[in-house]
Amino acid sequence: MSTLLSQLDLNGTGSCASFNFRRAARAVTRFYDQAFEDFGIRSTQFTILIGIAKTQPTSISALADLLVIDRTTLTRSLRLLKKQGLLAISDRSTKRQRFLTLTPKGEQTLADSLPAWRKAHNRFVESMGAEYWDRFRGELEKLSHVALALERSPENTRRSAPVKS
Q: In what order do the strands lie in the sheet with 87-89?
């Protein structure tokens, strides 16, 4: 073990919220990804298609806010979905925004994949218990709001890297 690593105090890092949420999110994502294999999409793409379907035409910024995803990551995903022919991205409007809509192929992919999502979702909820899931989903919503508020708080000012002379 390196000298620096042997000196680090790693106690408590296993209870890190980010570590545990990301671990759980990856496991849940893999489960739902299996449900979408036959439709040529992943669960993350399904989420984007649902977000667009519920709010279209929607700006990229509005979708990023809805999904709590940074615009750069969302833009990469949108390019792939556009290449697959599942969505259309408008030219920039007078307010310099681009708007998203599902294409007929995107609507069909969503229609075809919804039964698989329902089956996977029902299995997931049944295995946890419907009452527990409802309470937990409410707690997840609360946690999202808390994290977003902390991110926007003045105490979360980002420090710049030291300037080398």
A: 58-59, 99-102, 87-89
